[in-house]
């Protein structure tokens, strides 16, 4: 059995998990790397004047981490450019925000080539390689060109777009063809898997079998849905920690007899925060008797501040929340508490537990683990209600939530009313099913299912070889 090599844009080495400094995904990958004596390879986040390919290799809690610096031009063209101004908005159905610039695509190709150039000398014959997310779609092709014949798998953490959207991308066929150098391609949902299959059949003239063997461009790969979960056991422990209990008590003491609706998101236009605020405003208009009896706490962690679209969404949210508060607030009540900062996992767990409603309404999301964290943090004897967008990947697994169309203010407003009035017996029945799924389909199950599937694949399959 060879080593596992995980490749991602950024690396989250293990830290003090008990203190909540490491996310569940990083913990699961770290556990797999320890099991397979592997390496986690990626960008250091640092830039230098000239790319040297020099690696910084360190040990962190039993995991080998290999980091490489990029140039500032790489960061602007590959990361801020093609990854986050071209692919991210396109894959989240925001064609109005997509920027097509030749320098972006050139930078993206260049960095993937540099990753392959730096990684290739570390690869041993029996290793298997697991590449993460949209930053590194062409990496397998670059590795194959350097005679790396090992099993290589790819997992996409964000949605795969519909065929007619993807075909608006210049050189879309070249991008998809590069994916056929992977032996296994994993998606969060069956919807994304089916969208990829539709492109292969309708745009690339290929074929996809019922068991996921995709053939096109003279090559063969296998595709499948591998929905990611949270580290349920670790999160449950964090939810019962002293820090979580203190956070819970602090949040509950701030209620003053009111009910709290909670949103926790990275500050991103895909999360539907403006639409969420407007739906909450609709609820206040439709149910004036609920005014001063409820409030919305929205935690929005800033991200990608250098990208103009993110500066714009922050400005709009501040304007909308300010307008709603100005229209409805009283001397002792503010309808929206809008917070622009991040919190540790254990502190968040306490806030989740204090909330009567978890409002998770992205306009498009690969999975959305906040929905699963909210469920995991609840008190089994008095659980809150999860309201979940039908356009989040989590909706495929979490049907006992109140599923809504995030673009419909009236539908979300009605779900808020229903959630606030839901009897305890129904809340417990829904939570029991949701909790069972969160614990069963956790991040370890996701990791193990993907790694097992990758190990079953024959490396470097061409179309004329049997699957």
Keywords:
16 helices; Rossmann fold; 467 residues
The top level CATH class name of the largest domain: Alpha Beta
What summary fits the major beta sheet?
10 strands, mixed
What's the architecture of the largest domain in CATH terms? 3-Layer(aba) Sandwich
What would CATH call the homologous superfamily of the largest domain?
Glycogen Phosphorylase B
By CATH, the topology of the largest domain is Rossmann fold
Helix content: 40-55%
SS-derived structural category: alpha/beta
Number of domains: 2
The tally of beta strands, per DSSP, is 16
Strand content: 15-25%
Radius of gyration: 23 Å
Cross-sheet strand order for the largest sheet: 3-4-2-1-5-6-7-10-9-8
> Globular, elongated, flat, extended or rod-shaped: what is the shape?
globular
Low-confidence stretches: 16-21
Distance between the termini: 21 Å
Number of helical elements: 16
Q: What oligomerization state is this entry in?
A: single chain
Mean of residue pLDDT values: 93
Write a structural description.
The protein is an alpha/beta fold and 467 residues long. The chain contains 16 helices and 16 strands. The chain folds into two domains: 4-229 and 444-456, Glycogen Phosphorylase B (Rossmann fold, 3-Layer(aba) Sandwich), CATH 3.40.50; 235-440, Rossmann fold (3-Layer(aba) Sandwich). The strands form two sheets. The protein has a ten-stranded mixed beta sheet with strand order 3-4-2-1-5-6-7-10-9-8, sandwiched between helices. It has a six-stranded parallel beta sheet with strand order 13-12-11-14-15-16, sandwiched between helices. Helix 8 packs across helix 12 (345-354), helix 10 (273-286) packs parallel to helix 11 (308-328) and helix 10 (273-286) crosses helix 14. 48% of the residues are buried.
